[in-house]
Task: structure prediction
Amino acid sequence: LPVRWFAHPFFPIPAGRRLFRSNVAFAVPDSPGFEKDAKGWICRKPGHDWAAGCFCPLAFDSAAALLLELEQEHPLVGTVSVRADFAPTSFPIWGNDRTFSFEPYWEHEIAAGRCAGWAIEYRFGA
Result:
């Protein structure tokens, strides 16, 4: 049985340009709205038409990502720490003028009579 699952949280936009950074070495392909800064943060580009939104699948080596950890900027609680016990198979991000989201995908084939499990944890103000 092929299973494809992804988290799809909606977060408020932080006051600055920085959105999140990760233990996974993400690269931002040519994107009109997103870029990676010198300190490894995925950021919103100034001047983009955020009312129109932006979708961007990040590039990374999924074989090297054994688990996923993120530190995210948040305008109300300061930071949100995210930890997933799986290596994402794909990782698109998107945003508009009101919210942004990162979507770690978990894909697995489960054989008959077998089971599988995965988890993602969010800690607010951590």
